Amino acid sequence: MKKNKSRRSFIKKAALGTAAFGGAPYIIASKGNKEILLKREYLLQEHTANDNINLALIGSGIQGIYDTSTALKVAGVKLVAVCDLYSGRLARAKELWGNDLFTTRDYREILSRKDVDAVIVATPDHWHKKITIDALNAGKAVYCEKPMIQKFEEGAQIIEAQKRSKAICQIGSQGMSSLGNEKAKQLYEDGAIGDMVLLDMYNDRYSSEGAWQYPIPADANPQTVDFDTFLGNAPKHAFDTTRFFRWRNYKDYGTGVAGDLFVHAFSTLHYILDSKGPNRALSTGGLRYWNDGRDVPDVTLTFYDYSKTDTHAAFNASFRVNFIAGSGDGGGFRLIGTEGAMEVGQNSVTLIRSKLGKIPSNYSMIAYTEAEQ
Ligand SMILES: NC(=O)c1ccc[n+]([C@@H]2O[C@H](COP(=O)([O-])OP(=O)(O)OC[C@H]3O[C@@H](n4cnc5c(N)ncnc54)[C@H](O)[C@@H]3O)[C@@H](O)[C@H]2O)c1
């Protein structure tokens, strides 16, 4: 626990309901020993800057479209340009945001535009570092999708470029700005679950889409797809639409389950606990089902040891991603402590407060004399 507040102080705060979180929009429902804290509404307008912002999107695929659509809900934000390497994505951008949009296959044309204040970088992972650094050097504010980098050594270069340019650079792990995480952090620091014992994260997927087997457009060919630019610094490869549209499945462009999906669990966990990370890991897994040419596992289980710090007790974490769930899609992120547990979602936290049973129940009593019972 970060602050050594008493359980009584936590209960008092919880009883105050929404006031306990500075008037944040939560509804608290109770059921048995569970308290469910739900977001009432996420008001983007609360986060607007005063000035208008001209935005550009680099990498107009699935996440780029979600990010941009969210950004455009904020008053004063205008999308002026979009870059992508597949012409179908540029056509889709015009369908979504109008024919006046400037579109290009060369992101440098976006960075040289004086009217662009900020860029969203939502390309495959192997392009994040180069485009982010080029954008910072061009004086643009950057929102780069997670994972920040593809290779470990790239991180310091982005940090250095940000410090030099002094431009804003935010890495998009949306949990870092979710109300669920914020509320969970406050509850944890108030002692709601006592000392950390175990973190249990699982992400089960049971669909081709969930397993990163995205559709390949019928018109994808060397004229509509700029495959050579897509490769960037990755090893040379003959034109291959599967690699282009399902890049996540290849180590040359993506980061596998650990970089792509564990990153969300890590950012949430470390934010809530104010942790710098584990000191030991044991990982296993393999490619069990999706034998579609990919070279990354579809089942990964990793166990982490966290040492005691000023903000948390020593605990263990278990992360599991499984693309052949069998029983359907599902996920969970549960912090288990000495005085309860918290199930953390994007916009909700379910808190289970429980007292450890220390009085023997009927189970063991069968072996004791009546006098001892
Ligand atoms: N925060 C989240 O929950 C979340 C979810 C999904 C994806 N992501 C991240 O977003 C990024 C994009 O993932 P996606 O699922 O949208 O992939 P996607 O394949 O749907 O989109 C990527 C787009 O980038 C384009 N592209 C590739 N290289 C480019 C380049 N050099 N210049 C311009 N465009 C280029 C591709 O043509 C494609 O349209 C990844 O880094 C991924 O990890 C984050």
In terms of DSSP E residues, the strand content is: 15-25%
Q: Please estimate the helix content.
A: 25-40%
User: If strands are numbered along the chain, what order do they take across the biggest sheet?
Assistant: 1-2-15-14-13-9-12-11-10
CATH homologous superfamily assignment of the largest domain: Dihydrodipicolinate Reductase, domain 2
Please give the CATH class of the largest domain: Alpha Beta
Radius of gyration, taken over Cα atoms and rounded to an integer in Å: 24 Å
Number of domains: 2
Task: Report what the structure shows.
The radius of gyration is 24 Å and the shape is globular. With 373 residues, the protein is of the alpha/beta class. The chain starts with 6 loop residues before the first helix and ends in an 8-residue tail after the last helix. The N terminus is likely disordered. The strands form two sheets. Strands 1-2-15-14-13-9-12-11-10 form a nine-stranded mixed beta sheet, covered by helices on one side. The site of nicotinamide-adenine-dinucleotide has 25 residues, from helix 2 and helix 8.
Structural features:
alpha/beta, 373 residues, disordered N terminus, nine-stranded mixed β-sheet, 2 domains, 27% helix, binds nicotinamide-adenine-dinucleotide, Rossmann fold, Dihydrodipicolinate Reductase, domain 2
Short summary:
By secondary structure, this protein is an alpha/beta fold.
